[in-house]
Amino acid sequence: VSAAGAPAAAAHCSQFTAFSAKFTPRQSRHAGRSAVRRACAATVSIDTLAACKEACAALVKSANCAPILVRLAWHDSGNYDAEIGTGGANGSIRFDLEQKHGANAGLKNALNLLKPLKKKFPEVGYADLFQMASATAIEVAGGPQIDMRYGRIDAVDESEVPVDGRLPSAGAPYQEATGAEPAKESKDQSATGHLRRVFGRMGLSDEDIVALSGAHTLGRTYKDRSGAAPLAETKYTKDGPGTKGGQSWTEDWLKFNNRYFTMLLEAEKGTCDPELLQLATDNALLTDPAFRPYVEKFAADSDAFFTSYAAAQKRLSECGSKFA
Predict the structure, then answer these.
(1) Buried b / exposed e across 96-112, counting CB within 10 Å, b at 16+?
(2) Which of 53, 79, 168, 315 has its CA 20 to 30 A from that of 174?
(3) Helix 206-213 to helix 280-287 angle, to the nearest 10 degrees?
(4) Which residue blocks in 17-125 are alpha helix, DSSP H?
(5) Which residues of the chain are under the pLDDT cut of 70?
(6) CA geometry: angle at 322 spanning 320 and 324, to 5°?
(7) Is 220 helix (H, G, I), strand (E, B) or coil?
(8) What is the pLDDT of residue 172?
(9) At what angle do helices 46-63 and 126-140 cross, to 10 degrees?
């Protein structure tokens, strides 16, 4: 990212950061096209990034689409396997092959929402756009500002789509989520084991797992998509906005706050509205002795949650990325 326009951009956007990165032979498999993509990514001005971020914010406000934009970016980056060295935030989720992965149901809608922005800002790469839209959605919804890094190099084609099975499952049976056969059913069917296999594979910590789980304060899950929601609709979702129905974790599912954690503690006491959703992986945060202290901390201190969340999403947004 060039320094051009930095004074003007500083007045209306968060800090944009770019770094150089060394390329290994495996990383430069598409060497010719990668060189072009590196050059393009390296010449995006801070003014352009700032304008694109403003457009993302306007989209979130007008379409009430924060949850699905967050999910899109997470699913683009969340298939990274640090040991194998494939997957991650490279924009490959735009390809049909990856959209057909079971956990990506419905994300075509998010891609369609971002098409006009990609057309308006063609120099901003897909991977950067997806991660920018997610971070902006969190901020617009009332969450923390995330110190994002830009200059990701986009996947070229479907050959860079990782194998299916690495993303979190909504419920049992849980898959291995790691290695050469991530979709294979795991011998460890505990929800805690599943969470640690998925996020640990990317190098994320227990604190990261709990903090990122807090993003369930946004959005809904649909019975006809994941099959995880026992209710097709609730009093909180039956009228939308947007698509009607689904089941949410919180009452105000377009607002980012620490309500997810207070909801979990209320549910444990039996004082939570039964129309709010709790999955086995949510409840695992209460029963695991390493996870629970973070739940209690974030429920009691919104600022602590925001600080941990911003750091965790930044790390997730850079998983597997190759930077110009």
Answers:
(1) eebbebebbeebeebbe
(2) 315
(3) 130
(4) 31-42, 46-63, 66-77, 96-99, 108-120
(5) 1-42
(6) 160
(7) strand
(8) 94
(9) 50
Taking the C-alpha atoms of residue 324 and residue 309, their distance in angstroms, rounded to an integer, is: 26
pLDDT, tens digit, 9 for 90 and up, residues 183-234:
999 999 999 999 999 999 999 999 999 999 999 999 999 887 777 889 999 9
d(CA 180, CA 241): 41
Q: What is d(CA 216, CA 253) in angstroms, rounded to the nearest whole number?
A: 8
Amino acid at 311: A
**Rounded CA gap, 277 and 267, in Å?**
10
Judge whether 110 and 98 are in contact, CB under 8 Å: no
Contact 86, 320 (CB under 8 A): yes
Residue 255: alpha-carbon gap to chain centroid: 16
pLDDT at position 234 is: 98
Q: Which residues are catalytic?
A: 75
Instruction: Name the amino acid, one letter, at 299.
Output: A
